[in-house]
Design brief:
The protein is an alpha+beta fold and about 450 residues long. The chain is about 30% helix and about 15% strand. It folds into 2 domains: about 280 residues, FAD/NAD(P)-binding domain; about 160 residues, Elongation Factor Tu (Ef-tu), domain 3, CATH 2.40.30.
Length: about 450
């Protein structure tokens, strides 16, 4: 006889876990503390709110590991990918979404589901003994009381890093006499054509002046307890990247390769790209421009960019502290806490990095918990799949002594013959074949 599954946190992972378990016949109570308790990063009380970029990154399943993860999740019945596909925006080869429409779709699906009960309340400690099964999916902004309870139970000091948010610009304040529409290499994507980004060009003198301003701009001061917290290398503030060398940004988020200024036909010295952030096309995100500059400095310095001289910002960049556990030491391959197996973890708190990766771990946690409550067995997906590779990494594949957040990448997959794109395609085709076999077996087990 099944009992109720409790899920703490209504972000990407919690939403995915709740949907997956409920769809498998298990009653779910979804606990979300917003709006009763607010966070430093969220602006709404909607489920699966995207607080940073609106991009799920590459949608190319044959040549990119995150694109492969997209496809695997679609085949596994993901709510998050279904909502993303329904609200996608033009973004070249990436899957970007209208963040408001996306969150509203997820929220509507969960609140309407007959087996999901939503409770707007903060869970300020580990689950009580009468909760037969719990998934903690509180993300990088876990409430302090719950984080302390986790530390006390596991004996682990939580690991933390800073994650920075990029600014959003009003479209009508961008000068399109200077900025032009083009995707890198004119690549077509799932949400549009081959001109999905606005590109602001800088010549060498403008670029050097911009770098100097970034380095001298007034930054957010850290609190004493935050000063030893490392950044996640995949989401460094723009000014931290600039401090690593004058050309770092030209080979990073400001790289001009694959682009040509239509006014002269030449590649600029550097480029700032903006990507559509909402369905109306009125808001545009500064790609890769997460920052810890103070708000006044952001306005001054970012208006030095050609095309953004009169930019009006719908949201300025910011910085928040992320928390994750040492999953290779603490979790088993079913995402259960070894010290208390009735508790599972999912999402960014497990040390995966990225929207899609977080949702993917939520998908697995929901399946594992639902099967267990129904007296069934749900084996982990093969390590040859993107889902399985990511799970294997956080549940023992990574070195627990040096564990840091990780995006999905082909380096996590078992080896296969071939090199370059041939190797990636071989890995991807093997992954989908193995995933389909795994999904078939899990359906048979459920029947």
């Amino acid at each position: 006889m099944t009992t109720t599954l409790h899920i703490v946190g209504g972000g990407l992972a919690g939403s995915e876990a709740a949907w997956g378990a409920a769809e498998r016949g298990v009653p779910v109570v979804l606990h979300e503390m917003r709006p009763v308790t607010k966070t430093d990063a969220h602006q709404t009380d909607g489920f699966a709110e995207l607080v940073c970029s609106n991009s799920f990154r590459s949608d190319d399943w044959e040549n990119n590991a995150v694109g492969l993860l997209h496809e695997e999740m679609r085949r596994a019945g993901s709510l998050i990918l279904s909502a993303a596909d329904a609200h996608k925006l033009p973004a070249g080869g990436a899957l970007a979404v209208d963040r408001e429409g996306f969150s509203a779709a997820v929220t509507d699906a969960l609140t309407r589901h007959p087996r999901i009960e939503v409770r707007r309340e903060e869970v300020d400690g580990l689950p009580p003994a009468d909760w037969a099964s719990t998934i903690i999916a509180t993300g990088p902004l876990t409430a302090p009381a719950l984080a302390n309870a986790i530390r006390e139970t596991t004996g682990e000091a939580s690991l933390s890093f800073f994650d920075a948010i990029a600014p959003i610009v009003h479209r009508d304040s961008i000068d399109t006499e200077i900025a032009w529409f083009q995707s890198r290499y004119d690549k077509k994507g799932p949400g549009g054509g081959d001109a999905d980004y606005l590109n602001c060009p800088l010549d060498q003198e403008q670029y050097r002046a911009f770098i100097a301003a970034l380095l001298s701009g007034e930054k957010t001061e850290f609190k004493e307890w935050e000063k030893s917290t490392p950044y996640f290398e995949g989401c460094l503030p723009i000014e931290v990247m600039a401090s690593r060398g004058e050309d770092t940004l030209r080979f990073g988020p400001m790289k001009p390769v694959g682009l040509a200024d239509p006014r002269n036909g030449y590649r600029p010295y550097a480029v700032v790209q903006l990507r559509q952030d909402n369905a109306l096309g009125t808001l545009w995100n500064m790609v890769g421009f997460q920052t810890k500059l103070k708000h006044g400095e952001q306005t001054r310095i970012f208006r030095m960019i050609p095309g953004l001289e009169n930019a009006s910002f719908a949201r300025l960049g910011g910085l928040h502290r992320n928390t994750f556990i040492n999953s290779p030491r603490l979790l088993d391959t079913q995402l259960r806490l070894k010290a208390r197996p009735q508790i599972r973890f999912a999402g960014q708190i497990t040390g995966v990095e990225g929207y899609v990766e977080s949702a993917a771990i939520g998908l697995l946690a929901g399946r594992f918990a639902a099967a267990e409550l129904k007296g069934e067995v749900c084996a982990p997906p093969p390590a040859t799949t993107a889902l399985g590779a990511l799970l294997a990494h956080i549940s023992g594949g990574a070195d627990e002594k040096t564990f840091q957040p990780m995006n999905v990448n082909f380096g996590l997959f078992p080896e296969i013959a071939g090199r370059g794109k041939d190797r990636k395609k071989a890995l991807s085709h093997r992954a989908l074949a193995d995933l389909d076999a795994w999904l078939g077996k899990t359906r048979e087990a459920a029947e």
